[in-house]
Write a structure and sequence with these properties.
63% of the residues lie in helices and 10% in strands. By secondary structure, the chain is an alpha/beta fold. The radius of gyration is 36 Å and the shape is elongated.
Length: 627
């Protein structure tokens, strides 16, 4: 009869023979994390709040391992009762007992899985919260240097992988050890000679499995590489921007042929991998019969030779069932090193992010000045993103209250770095940035940023309604305040022309709106914030003339009475500035009015000839063309 033992807790589900989980890649071998007491204690720290739940899981695993023996034992008793006396009543009692044991085992299994899943999800909940809170407080430079995909991988894939470590690896190790221990004990209790025969055969089953599995793993790895290449091609050519590029350059046929070639490689590699696996299963099925045959032979020989009068056919059946039960737990324990290294790698990747320092934090005793005199001052400020590569080299200037200063310069001169230092997106390496005479490092960080409004050309809107994006600046704003802000930003009439008005969904990154519309919504958002200091990256050259004029008028409205610093790209803005600052390679080389700088600054004259003058001529041309 087939043994009625259920799979051990923690090992349920299909068995992936020879899958990639049993082997390390070359990269994993080279980057193998080092295990020490500090790392182990840190990992256990996430488990500590749920220690009693873990103890309950382990208790369930112990009971499950013991109960797992009974189906095999009962099977042996059934065989003996039929052969020995053919007692139907005894047979029925044994069958009822087997049913009760199996039912109890399944109930305990469900309980263990439920608690285990609850623990793992709670730990993921804790780790995600910790990671998100940590990343929220990272400096802006972190997000400009790190790949967005890496950040998302840490937040999702890596932390989700911890669930598998906790809910599968940890409990399956305990479950497998308990299963092996109880089975080996009862094997020797039944008959030590048959136990030795059964245990000797197990390596003959496992090592061929691993050998062929390694071949499948190599083929699977190759197939995965080709699949990654295929996915990259699909993402690049079937995205919004990619598909447009393909159409504009009429590359449909070329891209199809490229896709067809990659797809063909994927198909061939996958067929090889499946073919290797199918033949392997045939041989494995034949090989698995070796252990029972050897045990039947040894047991039959002992019974027939009368060397052991106490040995029964039922005992032989029990030994066969228990040896079969040993196969999967032993194989999993042999893969333990691989699983352990991969789980450590997950934790070290997560900890690598959590250990990144918060370079910009609230001071111990933050201040909140009234900001009646909200002047902005840079005092000999030096800054660098990387060592030995200074971006700002002793920048000094002061913007008095209510004045508008313009910063002009070529790309990479340090303009964006200057405006990023005012709300402490970056901190000065040396020197001071002051607002109202107080170093920005002494301010309460939230208070500082609440009083600074920034409008950039690269406008970002969340995928929600216009109203939701506006309320991001002031969640308790009234509709009157929202409408007034939209009127100041010259976007109110457009919003009211939409069928759903303020409830219009703007799409991912605001893609359902034009560039000018997005910009004016962002301006309205800043108006609603009502900041004391305004920072503008007024790069409107890529917009149409109507949007540009509307935005320029909106910017004029919100700059009135506010201390403003503008990265200027339009001559009209430059001329309107109370002072213009010319920056070259991180140094302010000249300051003054437009007329004064034309006379005394060679760099400004160059900018005027290459940027501002062409724009001015285009503006005049547009005016002349109007009826």
């Amino acid at each position: 009869m087939r043994p009625m033992n259920p799979p051990p807790a923690g090992m349920r589900g299909p068995m992936h023979i020879g899958g990639p989980r049993g082997f390390l890649t070359e990269a994993e071998k080279q980057n193998r994390p080092k295990m020490d007491k500090k790392l182990l204690l840190r990992i256990l720290g996430y488990l500590k709040p749920y220690k009693w739940q873990f103890l309950l899981v382990f208790a369930a695993l112990i009971v499950s391992a013991v109960l797992g023996l009974f189906p095999s034992i009962i099977t042996g008793k059934i065989v003996d009762s039929i052969i020995a006396d053919g007692n139907l009543q005894t047979l029925i009692k044994l069958l009822v007992l087997a049913f009760i044991v199996l039912s109890l085992s399944q109930i305990i299994s469900v309980l263990e899985q439920y608690i285990n899943s609850w623990i793992s999800q709670k730990i993921i909940f804790d780790m995600r919260n910790e990671m998100y809170d940590h990343l929220q407080r990272m400096p802006h430079a972190f997000f400009t240097n790190e790949k967005q995909g890496d950040i998302i991988t840490r937040m999702n894939s890596d932390i989700n992988g911890v669930s598998a470590v906790i809910s599968v690896m940890l409990t399956s190790v305990v479950s497998n050890i308990l299963t092996v221990g109880t089975c080996v004990f009862y094997l020797f209790y039944t008959d030590w000679r048959l136990a030795i025969v059964g245990l000797i055969v197990i390596p003959l089953l496992i090592f061929p499995t691993k050998a062929v599995g390694k071949k499948r793993w190599m083929l699977a790895s190759q197939a995965q590489e080709k699949n990654d290449e295929l996915n990259t091609h699909i993402n690049e050519t079937l995205s919004v921007s990619g598909s447009m590029l393909v159409k504009l350059f009429t590359k449909e046929k070329a891209e199809y042929e490229k896709f067809r070639g990659i797809n063909n490689e994927v198909t061939k590699t996958t067929i090889k991998e499946r073919r290797a696996g199918s033949w392997f299963h045939v041989f494995l099925g034949m090989f698995i019969q070796i252990a029972p045959l050897c045990i039947y032979f040894a047991g039959g020989f002992l019974i027939m030779s009368r060397a052991e009068s106490g040995l029964t056919v039922g005992d032989i059946t029990v030994v066969v069932a228990l040896v079969n039960r040993l196969y999967q737990p032993v194989r999993s324990l042999l893969d333990l090193q691989v699983d352990f290294i991969r789980s450590l790698a997950l934790f070290t990747r997560i900890f690598e992010y959590l250990d990144r320092p918060h370079e910009i934090e609230n001071p111990q005793n933050p201040v909140k000045p009234l900001l009646e005199d909200c002047s902005v001052e840079f005092c000999d400020v030096h800054f660098s993103y990387e060592k030995d590569k200074e971006i700002l080299k002793g920048v000094s200037f002061k913007v008095p209250k209510g004045k508008m200063y313009a910063i002009v310069g070529t790309s990479g001169a340090g303009k964006s770095t200057i405006i990023g230092m005012i709300p402490r997106l970056y901190d000065a390496v040396s020197g001071e940035v002051k607002i109202a005479g107080v170093n920005v490092k002494d301010y309460d960080l939230a208070y500082l940023r609440t009083n600074i409004g920034i409008v950039t050309q690269d406008t970002y809107l969340f995928n929600g309604t216009i109203l939701e994006n506006l309320l991001y600046a002031k969640p308790d704003a009234t509709m009157d305040e929202i409408e007034n802000a939209c009127k100041v930003a010259n976007i109110y009439d457009f919003i009211m022309s939409l069928p759903q008005k303020f409830e219009t969904v703007v799409g991912n990154r605001g893609l359902k709106l034009s560039g000018g519309e997005k910009q004016r919504v962002s301006i309205a958002r800043v108006v609603l914030k009502n900041p004391k200091i305004l920072i503008l990256d007024e790069a409107t050259s890529s917009l149409d003339s109507i949007s540009e004029n509307l935005i320029s008028a909106a910017l004029d409205n919100i700059m009135k009475g506010r201390t403003s610093i503008v990265i200027a790209h339009r001559l009209s803005t430059v001329i309107a500035a109370d002072k213009i600052m010319v920056i070259e390679k991180g140094i302010i080389t000249a300051e003054g009015s437009h007329t004064a700088l034309i006379d005394k600054s060679e760099k400004y004259r160059e900018l005027y000839e290459t940027q501002f003058r062409k724009v001015l001529e285009l503006e005049k041309k547009n005016i002349d063309l109007k009826p």
